[in-house]
Amino acid sequence: xxxxxxxxxxxxxxxxxxxxxxxxxxxxxxxxxxxxxxxxxxxxxxxxxxxxxxxxxxxxxxxxxxxxxxxxxxxxxxxxxxxxxxxxxxxxxxxxxxxxxxxxxxxxxxxxxxxxxxxxxxxxxxxxxxxxxxxxxxxxxxxxxxxxxxxxxxxxxxxxxxxxxxxxxxxxxxxxxxxxxxxxxxxxxxxxxxxxxxxxxxxxxxxxxxxxxxxxxxxxxxxxxxxxxxxxxxxxxxxxxxxxxxxxxxxxxxxxxxxxxxxxxxxxxxxxxxxxxxxxxxxxxxxxxxxxxxxxxxxxxxxxxxxxxxxxxxxxxxxxxxxxxxxxxxxxxxxxxxxxxxxxxxxxxxxxxxxxxxxxxxxxxxxxxxxxxxxxxxxxxxxxxxxxxxxxxxxxxxxxxxxxxxxxxxxxxxxxxxxxxxxxxxxxxxxxxxxxxxxxxxxxxxxxxxxxxxxxxxxxxxxxxxxxxxxxxxxxxxxxxxx
RNA sequence: GGGACUGUGGGGUAGCCUGGUAGCCUUUCAGGUUUGGGACCUGACGACCCCGGUUCAAAUCCGGGCAGUCCCA
Length: 483
Prior knowledge:
This protein is an alpha+beta fold. The protein has helices spanning 17-27, 45-64, 78-81, 85-91, 114-124, 170-191, 237-241, 265-276, 304-318, 334-343, 354-359, 382-405, 412-420, 437-447; strands spanning 31-32, 42-43, 68-69, 75-77, 97-98, 107-109, 133-142, 157-167, 197-200, 212-219, 225-235, 245-247, 253-255, 257-262, 293-297, 324-326, 348-352, 362-366, 375-377, 406-408, 424-429, 450-455, 475-480. The strands form 5 sheets. It has an 11-stranded mixed beta sheet with strand order 3-7-8-14-11-10-9-22-23-21-20, with helices on both faces. The protein has a 5-stranded mixed beta sheet with strand order 16-15-17-18-19, sandwiched between helices. A 3-stranded antiparallel beta sheet has the order 4-6-5. A hairpin with an 8-residue loop joins β5 (97-98) and β6 (107-109). The chain is globular and about 80 Å long. The structure holds one RNA strand.
């Protein structure tokens, strides 16, 4: 079919990622960009169902680890927002302010909710017996980003979960930060097949108000990194600002130690799309596919009724173990349905026609197979295995890509070359504290890349001096371009 | 933050320079024939981003706004 008539994706993922991305999110009916409000987006049913699934995966992990759901106001009184000085310095330029009645306090649309949770911790936590207190909410936050917005990647409203936890000691709080990374590993990597680098951000790049931040960097097809869930040790900064104390075992008052964790659903969707998708469209891991198996009936006028009846039987059988959809639309031919469901990323397709009915077999197409390649199945129990293997293949492929894109660099020239080739550089580094700023600025100005940080869950020892200034290296950092 | 470009039925586009009849492909709708990798025939609906200016006349020229894309910091 000539390209200009195609309803499917016409851009090639590896040649023109931006164009490919814009086409996929619209043609696969993830989003609609036509409402026209800068930084805000309409998410269509197919996209919303995927996001719901990601929410479910996360909430399950959070609850397993003792978090409880809450629902907080979407607005924050100005006085709350301004209690912690670093926090407000970081967020003020990005706040949407609401018009409020004369004489009442100004309200901000929440850009994040530390300043809602901490005052509630102050009320809810009386003694060490109330700790730890681990809460979360799903919801939207608003940030008036002045940079160019991009659908799902960078918006002024985004959908996430924010978990806010309070502890009696710093050790417990830091253990929570590590547990947060484990949750990212479980959901993002294990269930969605998206590998990441947990990066302890340099001092100059941490969350406004945090002691430290560990962000998860995920590779995009163009070689740039995108930040996925981040976790923050707030220490006692917010609890001091809001006077949130508890009585310890000795009856003495102490400030709470708090943490925050924030996985953004819309961004995770970006990584699912861009990590696994191909030139035909989306490829969804089974854990978030609204439909795992689509059944396409193939009939003629004579056997139509019979075939449809048989398909319904198969659907009923498969429904016990899978999310199944039978595409009964009469107005479309099988070929068109094949293309549509492939564009939407459905993992498995079952084709049922005269042949399958007579031979009692299933003709299976798996989304990552070559066109027209098909599998014949006698036993539908094997579908579970096919799904597992499919997810595993997606994960392996993404892991290899990330592994291949990390290169160790010993000189500035090597860094420059690697960045130009869309790689991530692993280098010896003087410091991610304030004294490392000049070296980081060198990277920014001359190589147009960022110091993303040090591994956040494992200590790496430098093998020689700082690659930029030549002084003693204290750390090993990763450098890359970013979204 | 700086720059370039763009906005025409639901989607993709022609027309814009040189002002005057909005053309094409696709989708959608109705009817019919079809259905193993994007079916066919017949018919129908549907558009110049918004505000202002110039002009007898603006999709076209000018100004502003809104929105989007790309490039650079």
